[in-house]
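Quick review question:
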């Protein structure tokens, strides 16, 4: 399931085949540390962008079949070369992190999805390359799952992101439903905000369900990993609905009971495709 620093990456969980844990950990270390440069501490924007530019130069060395001196990048280089991973996907991650430093608002959902294309989708694509399953259809469905996970993270963290002066809710959606940034700043959850969030939750769920057949198609432990990720994302959407979209005072998280539900639903995905797993709003806030 998602992790604290880099939300859309399964960190070498027990479900991953042992042979894949080393490359997954190497890519995760790169992504997490780059994300921290863009988002943590008290560095200036100029310093953050310079740090990310230095990472790009290390990728230049790797792409030229070299091995950087720094241990983290040397480890990444070994795995990129051994598994023939596309370096452009790692560059996309850096580009998205750099965008987060300077861009705080998104005009519409397509513009947000373009950000997700670089901030989230490379993760799924890299994993499919590691699995040897990077077909066109698998990549398309992986992109849907990863982008859905990213926007689900945005919807559960509207208040958290506001504290960083970031609004990922599309500006045209805010205008359509009559929600102002003043409401977000004050954490006001009224009928307009609920209507906006209902719309965005439904949009995220549709994306996840469209991509979900990939989780049933992949074999073995890899398939189980992805089925739990898919069901975890859908469960967060249910929890957003369960608190009547008040993500300011009730940030949705998954507890122990949820993991039992996720396991059961993941098993059902094998028995019946996603039509049998369409998540419904929880009956009451928990």
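Suggested answer, residue by residue:
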């Amino acid at each position: 399931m998602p992790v604290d620093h880099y939300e859309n990456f399964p960190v070498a969980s027990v479900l991953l085949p042992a042979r894949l844990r080393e490359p997954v950990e190497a890519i995760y270390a790169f992504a997490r540390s780059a994300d921290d440069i863009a988002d943590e501490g008290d560095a200036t924007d100029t310093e953050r962008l310079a740090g990310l530019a230095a990472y790009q130069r290390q990728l230049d060395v790797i792409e030229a079949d070299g091995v950087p001196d720094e241990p983290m990048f040397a480890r990444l280089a070994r795995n990129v070369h051994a598994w023939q991973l596309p370096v452009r996907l790692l560059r996309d991650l850096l580009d998205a992190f750099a965008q987060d430093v300077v861009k705080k608002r998104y005009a519409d959902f397509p513009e947000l999805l373009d950000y997700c294309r670089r901030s989230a989708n490379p993760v799924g694509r890299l994993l499919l390359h590691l699995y040897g399953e990077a077909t066109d259809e698998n990549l398309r469905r992986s992109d849907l799952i990863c982008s859905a996970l990213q926007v689900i993270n945005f919807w559960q963290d509207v208040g958290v992101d506001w504290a960083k002066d970031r609004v990922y809710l599309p500006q045209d959606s805010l205008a359509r439903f009559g929600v102002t940034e003043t409401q977000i700043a004050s954490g006001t959850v009224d009928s307009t905000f609920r209507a906006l969030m209902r719309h965005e939750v439904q949009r995220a769920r549709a994306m996840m369900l469209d991509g979900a057949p990939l989780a049933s198609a992949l074999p073995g432990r890899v398939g189980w990993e992805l089925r739990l990720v898919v069901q975890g994302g859908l469960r967060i959407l249910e929890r957003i609905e369960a608190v009547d979209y008040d993500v300011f005072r009730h940030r949705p998280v998954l507890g122990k009971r949820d993991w039992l539900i996720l396991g059961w639903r993941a098993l059902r995905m094998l028995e019946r495709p996603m039509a049998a797993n369409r998540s419904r709003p929880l009956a009451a806030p928990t």
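Why it works: The chain has two domains: 13-102, 104-286. Residues 13-102 form one domain.
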